[in-house]
From TrEMBL:
<dbReference type="InterPro" id="IPR001623">
    <property type="entry name" value="DnaJ_domain"/>
</dbReference>
<protein>
    <recommendedName>
        <fullName>J domain-containing protein</fullName>
    </recommendedName>
</protein>
<feature type="domain" description="J">
    <location>
        <begin position="32"/>
        <end position="96"/>
    </location>
</feature>
<feature type="compositionally biased region" description="Basic and acidic residues">
    <location>
        <begin position="144"/>
        <end position="183"/>
    </location>
</feature>
<dbReference type="Pfam" id="PF00226">
    <property type="entry name" value="DnaJ"/>
</dbReference>
<feature type="region of interest" description="Disordered">
    <location>
        <begin position="144"/>
        <end position="205"/>
    </location>
</feature>
<feature type="compositionally biased region" description="Basic residues">
    <location>
        <begin position="195"/>
        <end position="205"/>
    </location>
</feature>
<dbReference type="InterPro" id="IPR036869">
    <property type="entry name" value="J_dom_sf"/>
</dbReference>
Length: 205
């Protein structure tokens, strides 16, 4: 009886741990892969793989009843892929560097200030990273929108040119067809007139 109770307690504790981790992932800033994996910049590629494997096994949709597990698992997988991409990771690392320098400059601290390793600064650092990422994402979206508008205008111009070419081709075809009709009509008229003259001349003779 005691064993059954202990097993049930462990199962509930396990589910609680899973739910807590799922909630943490879902509330993490989506543009910050480090935050989703609960890692700090500077970690090794092995660290990323180990943490991802551990967390993915913990919250795998097949191993928990939590309905939001698939969403959290998807975010976790995407974060691991982003940090495994050297170019994407470098861009994210650059954002962390920019945010850190900005905070240090705002506060007038030295690079060896002991407060830089404190929890308060690390929290503020994450918030600053969030601000920079949002700004960068806004700029990227505006640039993408501008490019799409330019492509749209280019496509519209091409469509207009194609329509104009089609219209001219139709007009040319119609003119050629009407010309053939006019030529045939004139030929018929000439032939008809010739026959009438011949008939009249025969009567006079």
């Amino acid at each position: 009886m005691a064993d059954t109770f202990e097993q049930e307690l462990l199962r509930e504790q396990s589910e609680f741990t899973k739910d807590k981790e799922i909630q943490r992932i879902l509330t993490s800033f989506k543009l910050d892969a480090y935050s989703i994996l609960d890692l700090q910049p500077g970690c090794s590629a092995d660290d990323i793989k180990k943490v991802y494997r551990k967390k993915s096994l913990l919250i795998h949709p097949d191993k928990t009843k939590n309905e939001r597990a698939p969403e959290a698992f998807s975010m976790l997988k995407k974060a691991e892929q982003e940090l495994s991409d050297s170019e994407h990771r470098q861009r994210l690392d650059d954002v962390f560097v920019t945010a850190r320098k900005s905070l240090i400059g705002q506060r007038g601290w030295d690079l060896d200030d002991v407060r830089l390793s404190g929890k308060e600064f690390l929290k503020d650092w994450r918030e600053k990273v969030k601000e920079v990422l949002i700004e960068d994402e806004f700029v990227r979206r505006m640039e993408r929108k501008r490019q799409m508008e330019e492509e749209g205008r280019a496509n519209q111009h091409e469509e207009e040119q194609a329509e104009l070419f089609k219209q001219k081709a139709q007009e040319k075809k119609a003119w050629e067809e009407s010309r053939d009709k006019r030529v045939n009509s004139w030929r018929t008229y000439v032939e008809s007139s010739g026959k009438k003259k011949k008939k009249k001349q025969k009567v006079l003779v």
